[in-house]
Each structure stands twice: as structure tokens, then as C-alpha cells.
Write a structure and sequence with these properties.
DNA Excision Repair, Uvrb, Chain A, Immunoglobulin-like, 8 strands, elongated
């Protein structure tokens, strides 16, 4: 019995090594399935104790193979999102996430935030925290779904049938700062100057030289026109 368990544990270690090196999805899925199968075999064989052994162990539960210890936590920065009348949906791609236990995928909601933690996925933890959501959400009505290679966060809108132009308040402020001023109640030339200023600040050296040249030429033409008049 001990010899069989030992051989299975060697197989398990080799599968783990191959899993760390594999990059192709099909190969990784096959290795993950094989790893789960071997772990189950090890667990079953370890639990096959004689009555005398169980008595000596004072009815302690049979030893099980310890899960892979996680090395570090990866911060999730890439995601996509869309919305319906009732929900804002955030899509996070995590290869193989459908194979981890349900309790390893945890999401905590507040009225203006959520944080996702996926534990022990291929030896790593994955974390995503989103604060300052654009609008309030219903904590009780929000949830998560695990699909193939994807976690979907479902934030229930507190006010249904309202549109979210951005996911967070921070994103909204950043986007609004980038917009040039087109105030129709002010001098139209002032709005143009704001646009040119924005282009100048964001442009490379060639762009800045071109704008400077055009500005000088415009001033010269303006001065020439005033002289002729």
C-alpha cells in the first residue's frame, strides 16, 4: 500500500512540473485533469486503513495530499465589461479557473466596490479590487459566475435602466480631463486654442515644431494684414 501511494505521489510531482511548463490550453487542461485524478487515487489509497490502524490513530481522519502551496498573488489588471438594464458585467479571463473548487473563487461586494480572490489556481492566487464604482450597486443582488477560463462578476444596478458610461468614478474623471473645451458661450478662438494646447502638450518634437511654425506664420500673416489695412 505504502509503495503504491509513493509511486502515485511521484507521478503527481511530475505532472505538477509539466503543468508549470505547459502553455497550450489543451495540454494544460489535460494535465489539470490528470493531476486531479492522481490526487483522488492518492487520497483513496491513504484512507484504506486497517481497523487496528484506525484505532491507534484515535479515529483521526485519514491523511490527504496537501494542496499545492501558492507562491504569490497576481494582481488582475485586464478585464472587459458591458451592461444590461439590470446588471454591470465584468469579465476576467483566467485559464483553467473552472477546475478549482467553488469555494476558491470568492467575491466580496459593497455598495461602491467589489474584490475578487481566486485561490490556488495553478499554484497562484489571483486578486482584483475595484473601488469607487460609478454608481451604487445592490450587494444582495450581485453575484459571480465561473465559466470555462472566465470569471464573470455581476453587479446588480441599484437604479435599473440607467446607463453607466464608465465603470468607476476615477475612470470618469480621467476621461473628462482628456476632453478639450468646446464652450460655445466663449470666444470660438479660445476653444481652438485649448485644442491646439492639448495637441501640443501630447505631441512629439516634430508635432511641436509644426505647431510653433504654424503659429508664427499665422501671427506674421495677421500683422501683415493689419499693416495693409
Amino acid at each position: 500500500m505504502a509503495s503504491a501511494v509513493k509511486e502515485l505521489q511521484k507521478d503527481l510531482e511530475e505532472v505538477k512540473v509539466l503543468l508549470e511548463k505547459a502553455t497550450r490550453k489543451r495540454v494544460r487542461d489535460t494535465l489539470i485533469a490528470e493531476k486531479s485524478k492522481i490526487e483522488t487515487e492518492v487520497k483513496n489509497k491513504t484512507q484504506q486503513k486497517s481497523p487496528r490502524k484506525a484505532e491507534l490513530d484515535n479515529e483521526k481522519p485519514a491523511a490527504v495530499v496537501a494542496p499545492i502551496t501558492t507562491g504569490y498573488t497576481v494582481k488582475i489588471s485586464n478585464y472587459g465589461w458591458d451592461q444590461s438594464d439590470k446588471f454591470v458585467k465584468i469579465y476576467i479571463t483566467l485559464t483553467g479557473v473552472q477546475h478549482v473548487p467553488t469555494e476558491n473563487v470568492q467575491v466580496h461586494f459593497t455598495e461602491r466596490s467589489f474584490d475578487l480572490l481566486v485561490k490556488n489556481l495553478n499554484g497562484k492566487n489571483y486578486s482584483m479590487i475595484v473601488n469607487n464604482l460609478l454608481k451604487p450597486i445592490s450587494v444582495e443582488g450581485s453575484s459571480k459566475k465561473v465559466k470555462t477560463d472566465t470569471v464573470i462578476i455581476l453587479c446588480r444596478k441599484k437604479a435599473e435602466n440607467t446607463r453607466w458610461d464608465y465603470l468607476t468614478q476615477v475612470e470618469k474623471k480621467c476621461k473628462e480631463k482628456e476632453k478639450p473645451s468646446y464652450d460655445t458661450e466663449t470666444d470660438p478662438s479660445e476653444g481652438l486654442m485649448n485644442v491646439l494646447k492639448k495637441i501640443y502638450e501630447d505631441g512629439d518634437d516634430d508635432m511641436k515644431r509644426t505647431i510653433n511654425k504654424a503659429w508664427v506664420q499665422s501671427r506674421e500673416n495677421q500683422a501683415k494684414g493689419e499693416t495693409e489695412f
